[in-house]
Every structure is written in structure tokens, then in C-alpha cells.
From TrEMBL, chain A:
It comes from Chelativorans sp. (strain BNC1). GO terms for molecular function: copper ion binding; cytochrome-c oxidase activity; oxidoreductase activity. Subunits I and II form the functional core of the enzyme complex. Electrons originating in cytochrome c are transferred via heme a and Cu(A) to the binuclear center formed by heme a3 and Cu(B). This is cytochrome-c oxidase. NCBIfam families: CoxB.
Automatic annotation (TrEMBL), chain B:
It is found in: Cell membrane; Membrane. PANTHER family: CYTOCHROME C OXIDASE (PTHR11403:SF10), CYTOCHROME C OXIDASE SUBUNIT III (PTHR11403). One of its GO terms (biological process) is aerobic electron transport chain. The lineage of its organism: Bacteria, Pseudomonadati, Pseudomonadota, Alphaproteobacteria, Hyphomicrobiales. This is Cytochrome c oxidase, subunit III. The keyword ATP-binding does not apply. It comes from Chelativorans sp. (strain BNC1). Its main location: membrane. PROSITE patterns: COX3. Residues 1-224 form the Heme-copper oxidase subunit III family profile domain. It is a multi-pass membrane protein. GO terms for molecular function: cytochrome-c oxidase activity.
Length: 273, 235, 591
């Protein structure tokens, strides 16, 4: 009796918790609402299966509990029933997998008009690089990293001279423009994670990884690191500001290019001694 | 991970075949009664130790398949620079083949109960294996003399790591071989017992020779060419 | 190895050999300490695993205290926190679950259930335990080493695992961790060979494969998988040890640490992840399959009904075992590997859900029209189904590549894997201990303490991990010392975290009742008799309880039927033991 009752309570409690819970994902601010939809479909299917299985179990426990003189039925297997259950499960799985793969195909296909930007992670801060007026990022190499050149941009590559370097500061993005985020790390694994954008990807030293998205809502969003990167992991925060086009241009004017930074630092070097 | 997947596929294929041999499709609840209740026992006639060794060799096979997988995955990077193949590896390979042949002779001799011959073959096998190990050490010395150190680049690291792992397995085998050789002087031991020991040693040696041949192909860089050739044929 | 094998008779299979040549112990030391009896080794394995598991339990309290009440406890520094989570994860997955299921239950149950006198290589079996113990000691030693244990997370991802930004990375922590794992794998391989070969060669007359209890099937398949999967971890550990100690660059690319160029260059961190998860995913099933097997037997015995669809259950175990080798990269969807792999691995991962679902259906269908005795083992089995279904279904979120993207590396993942491979298998372990304790000791565990332990553990564990999914949905990443100030995380998440911590402490203390029960019942438990659950499988049919070294007295049992003849129409009782020739009379000289 009591066990069956508690099994029912577990199901009811879980459903109520889900409905009443104030804890849900933050409102989306990118084009990936498809991901949310797929997740909601999965929630419905799995929720139904969970409730059905546990309630069935609760019923069995109540109905077929041991009483004096009761005897179990003898039934080694039922091919028909097992086939139906298998087919049913396969259909349910396909109903989740198909939209998943469909959206994944979009996730990995970067649109041609996406602007490339670069995020460079290190223990424990975020740096960014935007292509300058030529729209192209210069080559980089972690062996070139030094105090003067924190991102390891190749000074011999002309494409790199006008790159805009943002060291340990906030990133701004124009709203409604697709961006391809190139991800680089100079020390250990990190993961560029903005919950509102839904997309995320690890950054691996020695490799350039990427993902793409289109910011759809202006505002300030928090950047977190989502791959354990040492003791400072939880404190590795940053901010992304999605601006209107005018605000974005205004901010862009205030940033310095790689060439300007190099000059500044060379001047500083000369002054020092 | 292609090498290990092929290896797992082979093991899985063998396992499924074995399971089918053991009637996993039957309906056990229908087999009551004395007649059905005492089926001919389905335990194999093979000595248990041999089956144990077989499974152990499968584990070793998985280990080296994984080394090879890692090697291939790393090899695809553009900065891959394999160290030159020390010439002595050719001689070492020959010596290891010799050791395997000697152990094969030992198996034949012990089956014919020729103790003197068995002893001689075992000692020859052991000696050839020691020569092989010395040769491998010489190969390491040649490489480091040429400036190819363990930590120079990943290709070098793999060379030392893989040959070292293989050498350690051979060394472990030598302990068993030593004990088996010592047994040939024990007159009281039943021949079956000795025969089993010799057969186990021989199986282990043949398998490690096979692994070595695979590794040799891998380290010589032919495996990469082979893969490239296959790709060309496919496209 | 050769010395310990039974005497060989040309052309006669070992099962036909009446008496195995056992190494019979001569004194106290060889009986209880350096024993070659699989049952003693099983108890040694289980005892050691539970002892080190207690350490992991305490570590989980400490990390929960930090998460529930951040800043309250000064001694939990970020360094210490990462060391806690790393050691907790590693101990629970490898040193507790793997060792307890395979080393503990495998050793105790395989020989008894297949009607063998012992494992086929008892000496190697003994070595296996002592090497495992050594691995545990090395692991514990890292707590006392300078710099403390490693804090790299149980996945030990390079490069951070061996750099100074991680606790233990440039000290002894990571070295001892890797050494301990290498030892564990060597020890496990020795034991694993035994479990597999005993099932292949040690079965008694009439014990065909399809007459084996599902427990044996689960442990057997899991061991085969472990033998093939652990080498991947071995390779990864050896290569990382080389990187750390000898300066090679297998996994270490050129990198700049704290503004300083390191001498590494050319290694691939992703390579480590592939090797790790090539082991890591089968590992999930290495823990799950024995649990599947055991729970099938618990349900069948206590519902007095044959397991529904036995053949399907066997095939599902084997198919899951095989498929689990081609799903590993679903742990790496956002690792930066080639995105096209996502299609393949999402498909294989969701396909594996089908045989798993079949198992669940067959468990609940076994309950249908059964005669359900709500004993403590049965309660644990039911609770297993609830938590396993819950955790398995959230696996469909994480396995479906694009749904995984927002959820990966959040607390949702932590909640998922704790539910599915933490709580669920541990509930099975408890159920199994309540079930087989009478066989091991001859006495029943106390019923009231058992009831208390069960309800607090089940409801409490569900209350810990079900809400935790929602912490992850909000977006809280895993492995965070504290959430800190975040605009998108409502402060109420902190209240939820505090609630989870309180639940975790309560559940933890309930385990003390269980431990007390284990010792108390040893002395004061009700006498059980040989077969208190009226079960059919062979281990309940031993001539004496607890079974002595050699298990079967003068003659090994002969098996006449499968392991699930419960409530057979026309039978005198509601169960027929496997060695009962009913309805025929025993053939002279065989029973």
C-alpha cells in the first residue's frame, strides 16, 4: 500500500515541481530558439514515458501485492507485446532524434554573411579580437605570445595589423548580425558559454574551434567558463553587450588596433630605460 | 580510433559467433526433464589456462590497438615528423622471428616427449628474445645518439613508448619462459603439465611477434602509406 | 598462473572432473587474509570498496556544504573544493562501483551461481585483490602528499591536469592518481580474466549459457567490456604520466601558462579525450550491466515470477555491451572535435536507448500479475527502476547532440549522471546486500533498520538529484566553487542548493544506519537458513550456509532447468530450484 502510494507521489511531485518551478532557462537572446523547441519536445516525450512507467509500476505493486494464497501467473515471454514496445520506443526515439539532427545540421553550417570574431581564453580571463576594416583576422600563433603581444598575433601578417584587440574587457556585438565565433585558448581547455545564446563550444589550446549565432536582443549578457580550467574556473567571467548598430559603431571607434597597441607599447618600452 | 574499432569489431564478431554456438536463441524454460536437463556439457575441451591466455592476449591486443589508434590520430597533424627507422630493427625483427620458431620447435619436441630437444629449443628461444631486447635498447641508443630524444616531438615519444611497452610485455613473457625451462629439469612433473606450459609460452610469443610486426609496419611509416593508398583506391 | 589451474585431463572437460584441485589453506593467514577463496576475496573487495566509498561520501558532504552555504566554511578553499570533487568522482566510479560490482559481487556470485567450486585461477584472483588494495593505498596516499590530491576533475583533462593552475598538477597529486589508476587496471585485468574464464569453463553440468541467472550475464558482459575498455584508460594514463614526468608532448600543445612559454609542443588534448571516453562510456555500462542483471534477479525472486522475456533480456545486455563501444564521443559534442561526428554519435546513442528501454519494460512486466513481496531487496529494486528511468530519460536530452549544447557542462549533467550511474546502481548494491547477506553470513539484516535506510535513501536521493536538473536548466555550470553574483541566476537557486545540501547530509547519515546494521546483524540478526527467499538459483542450494571453501561439499550440483522457475503451474511449491529434477526423479548418482 504505502510503497505504491509513494511511487504515485514521486510522479505527482515531479510533475508539480516541473510546473511550479521558478527555475527555468533564462530568456533566449539568439537565433537558437530551435534548440529550445527540441528540448521542450524531449521534455514532453520523456515526461510522459516516466509517468507512464512509474504509475504502471505503482499499480502493479498495489494490485499484485502479496496476500495469503495469491500466486503469480506463469508467462515466460510475449513476442508480440515485446515487438510492439520495441517499435513504439523506436518511434519515440526517432521523434526526438530527427528534429535534433535537423537543428544540428543548421548549427554546424555557418552562413556566408557571418562576421568572424575571435575569443581568446587564458587562465582566467577573456580576450577578444575583431577583424579590422579589411574584415579578416590576421594569423596567430601561441609561440608568439609575449607581454607586448598577448594574443600571439603574427606581426608579419598585414591582415593582422588592423585587428582590434580587446584585452580582458567587454565584448560588444551588433544586434541581428550573424557572427562566427572562432575560439582559441593559450593555456588549457576553456568553454565560451553565454546561457542566453544557448550555443557553446570548448576552446582547445593548439586548435581553433568555432560556433555561430545571431544575437537577437540588445542587452548585457554574462560570459562564463564551462570547462574546468583550474582553481579560477568559477571566477572566469566576462560580459557581452549586444548593441544597436549606432551604439556598436560608437564603441568600435574607441578600440585600438594591434598596430596601435604595438606602437604604444614600443613607446612605453623606449621611455622606460 | 579506427584501429581499435576494427579490433573491437573482430572481438565482437568472434563473441557473437561463440554465443550462437551456445544456443543463445533457445527457449530455456521449455527444456525441462531429464533428457533435456542433462545436455552434453557445453564446456570446451581446451585447457582452461589456454582460454585464459587467449583472453589475456585479446586484452594485450586492445592495448596495442589503442596505441596504434593514438599514433594514427596524432600522425594526421601537419607537423608530424617521424624519427628515422634505426636499421637494427630489421635484425631485431629477424631475431624475434627466430625466437618464435624456436618455441614452435619446443612445442613439437615436447609433444614427442623429447626432453633434451625441448630444453634446447626453450633456451634458444629465451636467448634469442634476450638478443631482441638488447637490440631494442641499442635502437633507442642509436636514436638518442642521433638527437632524437623522447621529448623532442610526439613522433619520437610514440616510438619510445610503443617499443617500450612491447619490450615490457616480452620481459614479462621471459619470466614465464624461465619458469617453464626450469620445469624441464623436474623429472616428477607429468608431461601434460609441461606441454601445456610450453604451448602457452609459444602462443604468447607468436602473438607478441605478430604485434611487433604490426608495430614495425606502423613505426616504419608504411602504415600511413597503406592508409593513403586505400583512400586513393576508395575515391 | 599455470600452477593454480586445475589438473588437466586430456579430452575430459573440466566440468566433468569431480574435484578441482584447490589450494587448501593451512592457517589463519591463508584462510582469511591471503585467501584464494573467491568468497573471501569478494568480501575483501567489498570491504575495501565500501571503506574508500565512505571517504568519497564524506567528500561529497564537504562539497555540498560549500555549494549549499558558500563562504561559511573557511577550510573549503577553491583548491580543496576541486580536490574534493575530483576524488569523490574517481573513487565512486572506479574504486567503489567498478570494484564492488565486479570484484565484490562478481567474485562472490559467479562461482556459486554457475555451480563452480571457485574461480578458475584462484592465485591470480588473490593477486587481483592485493593489487587493488595497493591502488587504493596509493590513492589515499595522495591526500597526504605535498600539494594534496589532484583537483583536475575526475576526467583529468590535460593540459590543466598537469599544470600549476590546478591543485596537485605540479605536485604529487596527479602522479599518484595516474599511478593508482594504472595499478587498478592491472589488478582488475587479473580479476577480470577469472570472471570471464570461470563463466566460460567453470559451469557445472547442465548449466548452459541460457540457464544462467541474469546476474551472471550482466557481470560477465560487463567484465568482457571492461577488459577491452580499461586498456584505453591505461594508455591515456601512461601517456599523461610521460608528459608530466618525462617532458613528452602527447597531449600537450605549445602553450603559455601565466605568461610563460612552456617547453611542450605539438600534443593533442582532444586525443586524451577520445582515449578517456573510449574507456569512459563503456565504464557507464560496466557499472550498469551488473546492476541490470542483479535487479532482474531481485525482481523475479521477490515477485515470485519468472523474469519476463528472459531471452530478450540476455540479448539486450549483449547488444548494449557491444553498442557502448561506438557512442563514446557523445561526451565530446562541444569538445571541438569535427562537428560531423555529432550526427553519427547522436544516432548511435539514441539507438542504445532502445535495448535499454526493453529491459525496463521487462522489469515492470515481470511485476504484472506477480505475487509481489515487498521485502527490502524488492523495495530497492523498485526504487532502482524509478531512478534509472529518470536518469536514463535525461540521457536522451544529453545524447541528442543539439539539445546537449546548452546543457553540457551544467549541473543538469551532474544531476543526470548521478541519477543514472550514481543513485541507481547504488540502490541495486543495497538491494543486493540485503538479498545476499543471509547467504554470506547466515543471518538476516534487521528489517526495521532496513526500512528506515531504504526510505531515507530513496526519497532523499531523489530529492537531491531531481531538483538539481533545474539548477542546470537555469544555466549554472558544473564544477563551480560558488555561483557568485550573476544577473541571470535568480537568488532562489541558492535556496534550492541549500535544500539539496540538507537532503544530502540526511541521506549520508542514513548510510551510517546501514553500516551499523551490517555489523549488528552479524551477531544479532535472525537466523536465515539456507534459502530464506525461496529462490531458485544455485547459490541458495549450497549444502551449508555460509558456503565453505569449495562451495558444494562432495559433489557439484547438476542443473536441470533455467534460473526462473517460479510459480510453475502444477509444481508443489512456487519455486523449483535449478538442481531439482522435478517432475522426474533424480537420476541415480547425479543429484
Amino acid at each position: 500500500m504505502v510503497p505504491a502510494f509513494i511511487l504515485v507521489l514521486v510522479v505527482l511531485g515531479s510533475i508539480l515541481f516541473h510546473i511550479l518551478s521558478p527555475w527555468w532557462w533564462p530568456p533566449i537572446a539568439s537565433n537558437w530558439s530551435y534548440i529550445d523547441h527540441t528540448l521542450v519536445i524531449t521534455f514532453w516525450i520523456t515526461g510522459a514515458v516516466f509517468s507512464a512507467v512509474v504509475l504502471f509500476m505503482a499499480y502493479c505493486v498495489y494490485r499484485f501485492r502479496h496476500r495469503p494464497g495469491s500466486k503469480a501467473a506463469y508467462e515466460p515471454e510475449s513476442k508480440k507485446l515485446e515487438w510492439w514496445l520495441t517499435i513504439g520506443t523506436a518511434v519515440g526515439v526517432a521523434a526526438m532524434l530527427a528534429p535534433g539532427l535537423y537543428v544540428w545540421a543548421q548549427f554546424v553550417t555557418v552562413p556566408d554573411d557571418a562576421t568572424e570574431i575571435e575569443v581568446v581564453a587564458q587562465q582566467w580571463q577573456w580576450n577578444y579580437r575583431l577583424p579590422g576594416e579589411d574584415g579578416r583576422l590576421g594569423k596567430s600563433d601561441s609561440q608568439l605570445i609575449s607581454f607586448e603581444n598577448p594574443l600571439g598575433i603574427n606581426p608579419d601578417d598585414p591582415n593582422g595589423q588592423d585587428d582590434i584587440v580587446i584585452e580582458a574587457s567587454d565584448l560588444h556585438l551588433p544586434v541581428d548580425k550573424p557572427v562566427k565565433v572562432l575560439l582559441r585558448s593559450i593555456d588549457v581547455l576553456h568553454d565560451f558559454y553565454v546561457p542566453e545564446f544557448r550555443a557553446k563550444m570548448d576552446m582547445v589550446p593548439g586548435m581553433v574551434t568555432y560556433f555561430w549565432f545571431t544575437p537577437t536582443k540588445t542587452g548585457t549578457y554574462e560570459v562564463l567558463c564551462a570547462e574546468l580550467c583550474g582553481v579560477g574556473h568559477s571566477y572566469m567571467r566576462g560580459a557581452v553587450l549586444v548593441d544597436t548598430e549606432e551604439d556598436y559603431q560608437a564603441w568600435l571607434q574607441e578600440q585600438s588596433t594591434f598596430a596601435e597597441l604595438t606602437d604604444l607599447r614600443n613607446v612605453a618600452e623606449e621611455v622606460k630605460p | 580510433m579506427s584501429v581499435i574499432l576494427v579490433f573491437i569489431l573482430v572481438v565482437a564478431g568472434f563473441s557473437f559467433w561463440w554465443l550462437l554456438q551456445h544456443r543463445v536463441l533457445s527457449k530455456p524454460w521449455l527444456e525441462h526433464g531429464v533428457h533435456a536437463a542433462l545436455p552434453e556439457t557445453d564446456i570446451s575441451n581446451m585447457p582452461t589456462a589456454k582460454i585464459g591466455l587467449g583472453i589475456f592476449l585479446a586484452v594485450i591486443g586492445a592495448l596495442f590497438a589503442l596505441f596504434a589508434s593514438a599514433y594514427f590520430m596524432r600522425m594526421e597533424y601537419s607537423d608530424w615528423q617521424a624519427p628515422p627507422l634505426p636499421r637494427i630493427l630489421w635484425i631485431n625483427t629477424g631475431v624475434l622471428i627466430l625466437a618464435s620458431i624456436a618455441l614452435h620447435c619446443a612445442v613439437r619436441a615436447v609433444r614427442e616427449r623429447r626432453m633434451g630437444m625441448t630444453r634446447l629449443a626453450l633456451v634458444t628461444g629465451g636467448f634469442a628474445t634476450l638478443v631482441f631486447l638488447t637490440g631494442q635498447l641499442t635502437a633507442w641508443r642509436d636514436l638518442s645518439a642521433g638527437g632524437h630524444f623522447l621529448d623532442s616531438n610526439p613522433a619520437n615519444g610514440f616510438f619510445y613508448l610503443i617499443t617500450g611497452a612491447h619490450g615490457l610485455h616480452i620481459l614479462g613473457g621471459l619470466v614465464a619462459l624461465g619458469r617453464t625451462t626450469a620445469k624441464t629439469w623436474d623429472e616428477t612433473l607429468p608431461t601434460e603439465r609441461l606441454r601445456l606450459s610450453v604451448e602457452l609460452c609459444a602462443a604468447y610469443w607468436h602473438f607478441l611477434l605478430l604485434i611487433w610486426l604490426g608495430l614495425f609496419v606502423l613505426l616504419a611509416g608504411w602504415a600511413g602509406d597503406l592508409v593513403a593508398l586505400c583512400r586513393q583506391l576508395l575515391t | 598462473m599455470v600452477d593454480a589451474t586445475p589438473r588437466m585431463h586430456e579430452g575430459i572437460s573440466p566440468a566433468e572432473v569431480p574435484e578441482l584441485e584447490l589450494y587448501h589453506p593451512k592457517g589463519w593467514w591463508t584462510t582469511y587474509v591471503f585467501s584464494q577463496d573467491a568468497k573471501i576475496i569478494a568480501i575483501q573487495y567489498a570491504g575495501t570498496a565500501m571503506a574508500i566509498g565512505l571517504v568519497a561520501l564524506v567528500l561529497s558532504w564537504l562539497m555540498r556544504l560549500q555549494l549549499g552555504f558558500p563562504g561559511t566554511f573557511d577550510f573549503i578553499t577553491p583548491d580543496a573544493y576541486y580536490q574534493f570533487i575530483t576524488m569523490h568522482g574517481m573513487i565512486m566510479v572506479i574504486y567503489l562501483l567498478t570494484a564492488l560490482f565486479l570484484g565484490g559481487f562478481g567474485n562472490y556470485l559467479i562461482p556459486l551461481m554457475v555451480g563452480a567450486r571457485d574461480m578458475v585461477f584462484p592465485y591470480v584472483n588473490m593477486l587481483s585483490y592485493w593489487i587493488y588494495l595497493l591502488a587504493v593505498i596509493v590513492l589515499v596516499a595522495s591526500f597526504f602528499a605535498p600539494g594534496g590530491p589532484t583537483g583536475a576533475g575526475w576526467t583529468l583533462y590535460p593540459p590543466q591536469a598537469i599544470l600549476s593552475g590546478t591543485p596537485g598538477g605540479q605536485d604529487w597529486g596527479i602522479i599518484l592518481m595516474l599511478a593508482s589508476l594504472i595499478l587498478f587496471i592491472i589488478g582488475f585485468t587479473m580479476g577480470g580474466l577469472n570472471y570471464v574464464v570461470t563463466v566460460i569453463q567453470g559451469r557445472t553440468r547442465g548449466m548452459t549459457l541460457m540457464r544462467m541467472p541474469l546476474t551472471v550475464w550482466g557481470i560477465f558482459t560487463a567484465t568482457v567490456m571492461a577488459l577491452l575498455a580499461f586498456p584505453a584508460l591505461f594508455v591515456a594514463c601512461v601517456m599523461m604520466l610521460f608528459d608530466r614526468l618525462l617532458g613528452t608532448s602527447f597531449f600537450m600543445p605549445a602553450l603559455v601558462e601565466m605568461g610563460e612559454q612552456l617547453s611542450y609542443g605539438g600534443g593533442s588534448p582532444i586525443l586524451f579525450q577520445h582515449l578517456f571516453w573510449f574507456f569512459g562510456h563503456p565504464e557507464v555500462y560496466i557499472v550498469a550491466l551488473p546492476a541490470f542483471g542483479i535487479v532482474s534477479d531481485l525482481i523475479s525472486t521477490h515477485a515470485r515470477k519468472n523474469i519476463f522475456g528472459y531471452r530478450m533480456m540476455v540479448w539486450a545486455i549483449v547488444v548494449i555491451g557491444a553498442l557502448s563501444f561506438i557512442v563514446w564521443a557523445h561526451h565530446m559534442y562541444v569538445s571541438g572535435m569535427h562537428p560531423w561526428f555529432g550526427f553519427f554519435f547522436a544516432t548511435t546513442t539514441l539507438i542504445i536507448a532502445i535495448p535499454t528501454a526493453i529491459k525496463v519494460y521487462n522489469w515492470v512486466l515481470t511485476l504484472w500479475r506477480g505475487d509481489i513481496h515487498l521485502t527490502i531487496p524488492m523495495l530497492f529494486a523498485l526504487a532502482f527502476i524509478v531512478t534509472f528511468v529518470n536518469g536514463g530519460l535525461t540521457g536522451l536530452f544529453l545524447g541528442n547532440v543539439v539539445v546537449d549544447v546548452p546543457l553540457s557542462d551544467t549541473m543538469f549533467v551532474v544531476a543526470h549522471f548521478h541519477m543514472v550511474m550514481g543513485v541507481a546502481p547504488i540502490l541495486v548494491i543495497f538491494g543486493a546486500i540485503y538479498h545476499w547477506y543471509p547467504k554470506i553470513t547466515g543471518r538476516m539484516l534487521d528489517e526495521w533498520m532496513g526500512q528506515f535506510h531504504f526510505w531515507v535513501t530513496f526519497v532523499g536521493a531523489y530529492a537531491i538529484f531531481f531538483p538539481m536538473h533545474y539548477v542546470g536548466l537555469v544555466g549554472v555550470p558544473r564544477r563551480y566553487v560558488e555561483i557568485g553574483e550573476s544577473a541571470f541566476i535568480p537568488p532562489s537557486v541558492q535556496d534550492l542548493n541549500a535544500f539539496i545540501t540538507v537532503a544530502a547530509l540526511i541521506v549520508g547519515f542514513a548510510q551510517m544506519v546501514f553500516l551499523f546494521n551490517l555489523f549488528w546483524s552479524l551477531r544479532y540478526g535472525r537466523e536465515a537458513g539456507g534459502n530464506p527467499w525461496r529462490a531458485t538459483s544455485l547459490e541458495w542450494q549450497t549444502p551449508t550456509t555460509p558456503p565453505p571453501h569449495g562451495n558444494w561439499g562432495d559433489e557439484r550440483p547438476v542443473v536441470y532447468r533455467w534460473a526462473y522457475d517460479y510459480s510453475v503451474p502444477g509444481a508443489p511449491q512456487d519455486f523449483i530450484p535449478q538442481n531439482d529434477p522435478w517432475p522426474q526423479k533424480a537420476v541415480a548418482g547425479t543429484a
